[in-house]
């Protein structure tokens, strides 16, 4: 199916982007374009106006403070993966970014685009929820626990833009995913982190409502932060996805396996094995 005609606008400042969106009520924002453009080609989305955010310098870049890393919304996956700041402060976040899609996807896709789309099998939602990140928009701050709502649904208003994401620096963190061999999307991926007494375990690729936390795993790891602490624990399969790739029960099994592997990847840039 051919793309329907649309106007492409390319603002160079956040203020200009907001003005253009206000003047074009049915416009869609474009960041990496790996979701919007395919859906437009399929006729599933037909915005008359597309506002490209990638020329706004203030939305791109990586900064570090004593206790966090801040990543601009239009920062490429490849730049997150290669960043020495990220590799030093949160190594697993660099590894996660380097495991997304293929080289083409990593050199075009953006972290803000991924989080705004909230694909149920995407990697960044697990990192955001697993680290307790804050998603900063052009009008407010949203903690990750309140940001993710459902499949492809977030707390963002239709005209709201992500400007940056703030990731608290954990004491230690790890990620592991069982990926689809073609798309590299997660069939089940688990992000584990510890900061002081706070332990977070976030799962992507498996939930009926998208990314979610596993309280039972968190409570066990808060007492003993080792893979052995998960022995005998299981995820209820009733709330998991089932499709041609995997049953609910298989995904439940994978979550347990990936959680143990994530604990084996602590402090490294390894994101799957």
From TrEMBL:
Which keywords are on file for this protein?
Answer: FAD, Flavoprotein, Oxidoreductase
FAD-binding PCMH-type domain sequence ranges: 1-172
Does the keyword DNA repair feature in the UniProt annotation? no
Q: What is this protein called?
A: Carbon monoxide dehydrogenase
Q: Point out the coiled-coil segments of this chain.
A: none
Show which residues constitute the signal peptide.
Answer: none
Q: Which InterPro entries match?
A: CO_DH_flav_C (IPR005107), CO_DH_flav_C_dom_sf (IPR036683), Diverse_Substr_Oxidored (IPR051312), FAD-bd_PCMH (IPR016166), FAD-bd_PCMH-like_sf (IPR036318), FAD-bd_PCMH_sub1 (IPR016167), FAD-bd_PCMH_sub2 (IPR016169), Mopterin_DH_FAD-bd (IPR002346)
Q: Highest lineage ranks of the organism?
A: Bacteria, Pseudomonadati, Pseudomonadota, Alphaproteobacteria, Hyphomicrobiales
Q: Which SMART domains does this entry report, sorted A to Z?
A: CO_deh_flav_C (SM01092)
Q: Which PROSITE patterns match?
A: FAD_PCMH (PS51387)
